[in-house]
TrEMBL record:
Gene Ontology terms for molecular function: DNA binding; DNA-binding transcription factor activity
Domain HTH marR-type as annotated: residue spans: 1-131
Entries under InterPro entries matching the protein: BilQ, HTH_MarR-typ, WH-like_DNA-bd_sf, WH_DNA-bd_sf
Protein keywords: DNA-binding, Transcription, Transcription regulation
Source species of the chain: Candidatus Onthenecus intestinigallinarum
Domain of life: Bacteria
Keyword Transcription: yes
UniProt-listed PROSITE patterns: HTH_MARR_2
Protein name stated in the entry: Winged helix-turn-helix transcriptional regulator
Keyword check for Transcription: yes
């Protein structure tokens, strides 16, 4: 059990959520809001439906998360015809930059024990594992379809 991908994935996930929680707490954000901010930051003007589908989250959870980000001044939700469009506010843009940077900072910290060749090999191997068909999760599209 302890020498499995599942175990190491769980350990790294816990470390990453703790790290991001510490970094985002100063802005009044949590780990859960991280991906919503990043998606809207990379896809300005997206619809709530597009966001929910892309993040593969429950509609209710998505709507509560968006409502909180709007209420806290990180995001706008403006009517556009029969739908709504999501955009980041200036405060949201600052949070987006920090949220985006957290990934790179955490990687640099965690991967510092590896040589560049080892980092490249690890990335290539993880990409290969992630691209594997996962019929039970994404309809057999594999990671590349995202």
């Amino acid at each position: 059990m302890f020498d499995t991908l599942a175990y190491y994935s769980s350990v790294l996930y816990r470390h990453f959520t703790h790290y991001t929680g510490e970094k985002l707490q100063a802005l009044g954000l949590n780990y859960g809001s991280l991906f919503f901010l990043i998606y809207v930051g990379k896809h300005p003007g997206c619809t709530p439906s597009e966001l929910t589908k892309a993040l593969r989250v429950d509609w209710g959870h998505s709507q509560r998360s968006v409502a909180r980000l709007v209420e806290d001044g990180f995001m706008t939700k403006e009517r556009a015809g029969r739908t709504h469009r999501l955009n980041l506010t200036a405060k949201g843009e600052q949070a987006f930059e920090l949220s985006h940077q957290v990934f790179f900072d955490w990687d640099a910290q965690r991967l510092s024990v590896l040589t560049q060749a080892e980092r490249d090999e690890l990335s290539a191997l993880l990409r290969k594992v992630a691209a594997q068909r996962t019929d039970d999760w994404d309809g057999g599209k594999g990671c590349e379809a995202r």
